[in-house]
Automatic annotation (TrEMBL):
PROSITE patterns: FAD_FR. It holds the Pfam family NAD_binding_1. Gene3D superfamilies: Nucleotide-binding domain of ferredoxin-NADP reductase (FNR) module, Translation factors. It comes from the Bacteria. InterPro entries: Cbr1-like_FAD-bd_dom (IPR008333), FAD-bd_FR_type (IPR017927), Flavoprot_Pyr_Nucl_cyt_Rdtase (IPR001709), FNR_nucleotide-bd (IPR039261), MRET (IPR050415), OxRdtase_FAD/NAD-bd (IPR001433), Riboflavin_synthase-like_b-brl (IPR017938). Transmembrane segments: none annotated. Its cofactor is FAD. CDD domains: FNR_iron_sulfur_binding_3. Residues 14-115 form the FAD-binding FR-type domain. This is Ferredoxin reductase.
Length: 251
């Protein structure tokens, strides 16, 4: 009986559904948040992603994976898509996909890189660029359920113009501490000069290793490997560091 129930749930998540775009919001010059209504959506955990499939009139089909940005119980799902230069899918979703248009979705997918609301240990989130997206789902879910688990976010980005969810993050939540690391140019008055994420950034803004936090690192492959190495060098247990990475995929 248990095996049948689990198989049914997996089959439900892995079938294709039709979602309709109901809202789009600019996040940065190159990124848009897309709000979709997906009838029969089974719900998701923060950190999971979906597969998006586009099919042309001649039958050509292509698909990409995108992290879910919305809280688990938000009713509708949100994807934040950053346009990839010369990409095949992201320019259409970011620039051309219109409210009322439909798309095929499959998911939610993934069970390792997730935060569950019954976890009690402090949480350290480390984002590189658009790697903030699944971490934002964790922040939003924490807020939605009224969790008192302390969160710290270290957000590395190239320039102030690349900051996603700017107003929401600046508004802040009780128990959420945020540190920004700018690698190319920084806002006026910021004492830290632009530069790559370093051990001192994680030591100052993250949790000490002895606190045994749950750590989530997301971003481009090089960033994730670099950040994870720094965390291990700072004494964090590799088994407590969960990573999600992305690289060139054709967009």
């Amino acid at each position: 009986m248990a095996r049948t129930a689990v198989s049914g749930r997996l089959g439900d998540r892995l079938r294709w559904r039709v979602g309709t775009l109901v809202e789009r919001r600019p996040e940065t010059p190159a990124a848009r948040t897309l709000v979709l209504d997906v009838p029969g959506w089974p719900g998701h955990l923060p950190g999971q992603h979906v597969d998006v499939r586009l099919t042309a009139e001649d039958g050509y089909s292509t698909q990409r994976s995108y992290s879910l940005a919305s809280a688990s119980d938000s009713g509708r799902i949100e994807l934040t898509v950053q346009r990839v230069r010369d990409g095949e899918v992201s320019p259409y979703l970011a620039d051309d996909w219109a409210v009322g248009d439909a798309v095929e979705l499959r998911g939610p997918v993934g069970g390792w890189f997730v935060w569950r609301t019954d976890q009690k240990e402090p949480v350290l989130l480390v984002a590189g660029g658009s790697g903030i997206v699944p971490l934002m789902a964790m922040i939003r879910t924490r807020r939605a359920v009224g969790s008192r688990v302390p969160f710290r976010l270290v957000y590395s980005l190239r320039t102030p113009e690349d900051l996603m969810y700017a107003q929401e993050l600046r508004r802040g939540d009780p128990g959420l501490d945020i540190a920004y690391v700018y690698t190319r140019s920084a806002p006026d008055g910021l004492r830290r000069p632009p530069g790559r994420l370093g051990a001192q950034d994680l030591a100052a803004a993250g949790w000490p290793a002895e606190f045994e936090p749950a750590v989530y690192v997301c971003g481009p492959t090089g960033f994730v490997e670099h950040a994870a190495d720094l965390l291990v060098d700072l004494g964090h247990d590799p088994g407590r560091i969960r990573t999600e990475r992305f690289g060139p995929s054709g967009g």
